[in-house]
Structures are given as structure tokens and as C-alpha cells.
Specification:
Distance between the termini: 84 Å
Low-confidence stretches: none
Number of strands: 0
Structural class: mainly alpha
Helix content: 55-70%
Shape: flat
Keywords: Cell membrane, Membrane, Protein transport, Translocation, Transmembrane, Transmembrane helix, Transport
Organism: Corynebacterium kalinowskii
Order of helices and strands: HHHHHH
Region (Disordered): 1-25
Strand content: under 5%
Radius of gyration: 35 Å
Largest sheet: none
GO biological process, one term: protein targeting
InterPro entries: SecE_bac, SecE_sf, Translocase_SecE/Sec61-g
Number of helices: 6
Length: 109
């Protein structure tokens, strides 16, 4: 039986076995694929940043670019945040209280 499966000539031995190879969709050889991987590895080895030593000076230069809020803006933002927190706390407390009343009404007789 194994004799029936072995190809009789070299052309049959080189016949592609996968679906893509049968349709001719992929003509990439193993050598071409390995070359592409090597190029990708070499491209990835290039340094993008300046390393650890350049980090702190870069942070300083970026902080100089920041437009910092004035004292009046900070007071306004703080008041807005406190009002928002008070409203959300009241909302959650109200929902909790009403849910407690509903549960008490259902389960306690």
C-alpha cells in the first residue's frame, strides 16, 4: 500500500499539498519568508527613544509646554467637582434609600 502513495517522478514529489499552493495564491518560499523576518527584526532593532538617561530631561521639556490653569480657574474647577460629587452622592443615597424601602415593603410584614 505504501508503494501506491509514493510519487513516481520528481515533478509529482514537488506538487503542492495545501489549498493556497494548489490555487497558486501563495508563491512565497521559505527563504523569502525568512528574509522578510530578518528585515523586520533589523528594523525593530533601531532605537526610537533616547533611553533611560534622556527620560527626565524630556519630562521637563514636556512640562514646560503645559498650559497650567490659573488660581481662579483652579478654584472654579474645584467648586465644580465638589458640586458634582455632592449631587452624585445625593443621587446614590436616594436610590439606596428607595431600594431599601422597596425591599423592606416586600420582605417585612
Amino acid at each position: 500500500m505504501s508503494e501506491d502513495r509514493q510519487p513516481e517522478n520528481a515533478a509529482a514529489a514537488a506538487r503542492p499539498a495545501g489549498k493556497r499552493q494548489l490555487t497558486g495564491a501563495s508563491t512565497t518560499s521559505a527563504a523569502q519568508l525568512e528574509a522578510k523576518k530578518q528585515v523586520a527584526r533589523n528594523a525593530g532593532e533601531e532605537k526610537v527613544g533616547g533611553g533611560v538617561a534622556a527620560f527626565l530631561p524630556e519630562v521637563g521639556s514636556e512640562l514646560k509646554k503645559v498650559i497650567w490653569p490659573t488660581a481662579k480657574q483652579m478654584v472654579t474647577y474645584t467648586i465644580v467637582v465638589f458640586i458634582f460629587l455632592i449631587l452624585l452622592t445625593a443621587l446614590v443615597s436616594g436610590v439606596d434609600f428607595l431600594a431599601g424601602l422597596g425591599v423592606e415593603k416586600i420582605f417585612v410584614q
